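Practice problem: predict the structure.
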Amino acid sequence: MKVLVVGGGGREHALAWKLGQSKRVDQVFVAPGNAGTAEEDSAAIENVEIGDTNIPQLLAFAKKNPIDLTVVGPEASLAAGIVDAFTAEGLRIFGPNKQATELEASKVFCKNLLRHADVPTADFRTFRDLESARLFLDEREDTPMVVKADGLAAGKGVIVCSNRAEAIEAVERIILTEEFGAAGQQLVIEDRLVGQEASVLAITDGHTILTMPAAQDHKPAYDGDRGPNTGGMGAYSPTPLVTDELMRSVEEKVLVPTVHQLKRMRKPFKGILYAGLMITKQGLKVLEYNVRFGDPECQPLMMRLQSDLVDVLEAAADGRLDEAPDMIWDPRPAVCVVMASEGYPGDYTRGHAIRGLTEAAAVPDAKVFHAGTKMVDGQVVTNGGRVLGVTALGSSISSAKLQAYTAVKCIRWNGAWCRKDISDKALAP
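Answer:
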């Protein structure tokens, strides 16, 4: 069969790499892909020069080739309605339709759904204008808060504030200076939760829910969870934070009520339901939902997955996930370290030649997934803020971390940097 992966980041490289390992798959096309998918060892993987939100061209390509299964990576493609367009043409595609994608595309929609589904989350208020948001903050105690732009902002529209002054400044950034553009037409102000974050991803066809091992992302830019929020500076799986008991609680109190509430709202959900969780002293709380494989969580999950990904995604797309075989996971942990461009998550330059990729690939049990890269005159160069996701397996989390950072040390370009503490939370006493 032929598979099309839509997107060009680290998540899509990991998905294409895993899908290409299936005995059922003859060809994997990646649109638009990156230098990593272009140079992937598997001859079955090929880039296609079509943007991930160019739905008419993607649709035409899928019909011409013909594609048996399309797997959508980025949230922007889902929000643009790619699933609706493919489904209308009778093409099999894995991912939620435009209506269901609102769960990620609108923070306001998500928070209201959590409230109606009685899913535990932080107390919140929503606003459309500067004056009412300021008035609300002026009347509140001077406590830590989180201010979120409503729409999609590439993982950067969440501003964690220590006090009222910072919250007012965040509101002004979103509404007054329009830092996040149309994403800031509405905003959410919520209580800041204290605890550790975890990510639980599940595959669902709207009836059956297949939960994957928990992961832990690292959103802040710098070591010790300092600095501005990013799209994610690294992740590892599994995390000891999510015990078997807690995972059952996530399924019962978070995933099942959410799927049922979406069904009641006539927005049935098919695809990846990604719950961003905070484990607090008061219990489990949902920070937000994403509606696709996380990036970088996808990379360690794909490293650990031993069974055929195609079987499960195809069954979910067809609405028969209850018939899919169980997913089999490598018991070894995996750690992914994101290497980024100087200046990220702010302004950065592109086009820097990347050295040492061959040496990194030779590190045992390590894999370099490309995110913001492209080929220029036969040379791999930087083409984004998050450039590489260096991922490794190990007999323990500490050994997986050692292997990942051993591969990181092989790689150089002008301005390359990364966090040095990915997975350390798992090792803390």
